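Lecture notes, part 5. Sequence design as translation. It can be helpful to think of inverse folding as translation between two languages: the language of shapes and the language of residues. The source text, in structure tokens, appears below.
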């Protein structure tokens, strides 16, 4: 048996094929901060959090949650009745924001429905729908009620199936479920499909909704903070869970792109099922790969949106990876204090925040910090900063050591 070479944050990369820049034509975001990019941008400028201490369904945990308002009151399209669940309602809210449906229709008209793919990330999909149905089991047989449409709601693929149908697209579709890196990895998946000539455009993003499995599960892992999450704080105690829907439209080329996707670094260190590699080895590899694909240096990056969950181990490991790749000067922050940790949607949420930083020259602050952990050396922003940047990176790291880093460049 051949011995494996240990992975460290300083492990060099093999030569990589440069990535063809991919146009980001549009993006949109619905989270606890509100519906659409303007609501998000305003909250980032004001340093306002969408987290509230509240219960959800029967989960009375006293936790701070990032809940999206408006999904229950949404007028649901009758032709998609079988898809009706909280997760797909979040997706619908996202599709309706920022004129995103219109932008996709323009891409469909340009490229053809069969040449536009759908690649989304989620971790829980519509589990809540089955949890609610479980309460209505047949008392004799234990059978779930006939009105539970598992393939259209609970199934992991259900959200891509719904979005593809809703947008009348016919290209390849898939869902990535690698925990919290899910909706970052789909950017790379779509870009590779374009590079292979299989598609010309793609709807990418992520949707994850609150459910009891998530709330009780993360609480059992002792990862949920009893107070509002405080990434990078010396006394951080865990994460606050949120929900969100975030989408972007990627195209082979575009006349007026929002930005360019220049690199998508991915790695899997497999250190532990629920804990990151303590030295951030896999995270550092993902960051280096994103830079290498783009042919850019670390000192060219003007801002990094951290994964920054607020758990002691995650923040410490990411800080070590940041020091290994970017050093102590690059401005960075976590947006988890604004939205909560949106799990499978986190990568796409953070990508949208990073795109807003590029578009508007606003580097958001990390919220709720009372005292920076002196052991962490990154240049963590405590106040929003108005600063034009040309390159931004977005980190997303999931359970099991699944890591992703997206590198975006300004379209000027």
């Amino acid at each position: 048996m051949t011995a494996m070479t240990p992975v460290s944050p300083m492990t060099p990369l093999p030569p990589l094929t440069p990535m063809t820049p991919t146009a980001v034509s549009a993006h949109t975001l619905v989270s606890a901060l509100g519906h659409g990019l303007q609501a998000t941008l305003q909250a980032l400028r004001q340093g306002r959090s969408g987290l509230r201490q509240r219960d959800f369904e029967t989960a009375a945990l006293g936790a701070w949650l990032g809940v999206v308002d408006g999904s229950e009151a949404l007028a649901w399209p009758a032709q998609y009745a079988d898809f009706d669940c909280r997760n797909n309602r979040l997706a619908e809210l996202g599709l309706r924001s920022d004129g995103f449906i219109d932008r996709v229709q323009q891409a469909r008209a340009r490229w053809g429905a069969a040449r536009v793919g759908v690649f989304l990330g989620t971790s829980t999909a519509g589990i809540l729908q089955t949890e609610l149905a479980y309460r209505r089991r047949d008392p004799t047989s234990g059978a779930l009620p006939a009105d539970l449409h598992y393939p259209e709601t609970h199934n992991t693929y259900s959200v891509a199936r719904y979005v593809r149908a809703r947008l009348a697209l016919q290209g390849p579709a898939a869902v990535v479920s690698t925990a919290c890196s899910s909706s970052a990895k789909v950017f790379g998946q779509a870009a590779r499909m374009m590079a292979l000539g299989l598609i010309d455009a793609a709807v990418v993003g992520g949707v994850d909704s609150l459910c009891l499995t998530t709330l009780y599960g993360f609480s059992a892992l002792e990862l949920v903070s009893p107070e509002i999450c405080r990434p990078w704080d010396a006394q951080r105690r865990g994460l606050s869970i949120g929900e969100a829907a975030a989408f972007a439209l990627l195209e082979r080329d575009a006349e007026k792109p929002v930005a360019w996707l220049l690199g998508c670094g991915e790695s899997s260190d497999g250190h532990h099922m629920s804990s990151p590699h303590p030295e951030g080895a896999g995270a550092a590899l993902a960051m280096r790969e994103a830079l290498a694909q783009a042919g850019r240096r670390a000192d060219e990056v003007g801002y990094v949106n951290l994964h920054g969950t607020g758990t002691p181990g995650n923040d410490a490991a990411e800080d070590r990876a940041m020091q290994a790749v970017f050093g102590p000067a690059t401005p960075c922050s976590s947006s988890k204090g604004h939205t909560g940790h949106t799990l499978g949607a986190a990568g796409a949420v953070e990508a949208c925040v990073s795109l807003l930083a590029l578009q508007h020259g606003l580097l958001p602050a990390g919220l709720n910090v009372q005292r920076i952990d002196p052991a962490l050396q990154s240049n963590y922003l405590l106040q929003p900063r108005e600063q034009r940047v040309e390159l931004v990176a977005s980190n997303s790291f999931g359970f099991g050591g699944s890591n992703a880093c997206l590198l975006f460049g300004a379209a000027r």
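The translated text above is only one of many valid answers, since several sequences can fold into similar shapes. The CA atoms of residues 8 and 287 lie 13 Å apart.
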